[in-house]
């Protein structure tokens, strides 16, 4: 299986958690740190779409303009690509022009899966402008696999680079990934992505299933921030995919630290606690956590790193001598 790419949507979908009030400074900070953690695709901007602030339905929401989000992302990134969500009806052709002027790399055209034909002019315009185009099929589950696969053919014809299966309600199960992938591959070879919400607690399981089937992209947000039941936590996705032997190029330990620094002060502790993720990755029993915390503080090491390194040596009988020995080796 090839590389699986994680796209982080904290600054877009996560905005549902704070009334779309991420600032330009938040955008700069998070873009820089996500890039340093190895995330290659970063979605920014108003959670609803480009152009949402000017629409009567969302007037007054958000704290900065689309242009300010673009400028903040552009000046903070050296390698990673950034993009924004484009919803026909809220977004216009002028927003595509704005994106190009500010060096945006990709655009995500969000369309209800029943209305795919309405996305054609926007996809074609974005491709002509040189943007990488994702087409996100909102509420994908309302069509069966065969019907949806026919829509994928249309998006491929329009010029989309990737089609996303979107579990907007968080109602899908892992076997759905197999059924939709199989139907799509009978008609198209276009790259595929999966964006899962976590209403049933299956966003990570569904994302893993999608990756195992052959989807090339999966989405996440730090600590699962997002609309409704939230999203797949980016840091957990990175850990699970690494444990499954899939290359993402993302350092989940850096994401755990970033989530602690960025998410917890703003939203409190939520989702999976970072050390629980590290323990799950390493197969480390939680009864040893007090010892880990004590030694991590004593020797000035990251407890998540200490958990992983101790687990490489022992997972059944963990004692102080071992933990201190490993902590010293980390600081050496």
From TrEMBL:
SUPFAM superfamilies with a match to the protein in the record: Aldolase (SSF51569)
Keyword terms, alphabetized: Aromatic hydrocarbons catabolism, Manganese
Principal EC category: lyase
InterPro entries referenced in this protein's UniProt entry, alphabetically: 2-IPM_HCS-like, Aldolase_TIM, DmpG_comm, DRE_TIM_HOA, PYR_CT
Enzyme Commission (EC) number: 4.1.3.43
Keyword Manganese: yes
Pfam family, one: HMGL-like
GO biological processes: L-leucine biosynthetic process
PROSITE patterns cross-referenced by the UniProt entry: PYR_CT (PS50991)
Family: Belongs to the 4-hydroxy-2-oxovalerate aldolase family.
Name of the protein this chain belongs to: 4-hydroxy-2-oxohexanoate aldolase
Organism in which the protein naturally occurs: Candidatus Liptonbacteria bacterium RIFCSPHIGHO2_12_FULL_60_13
Lineage: Bacteria, Candidatus Liptoniibacteriota
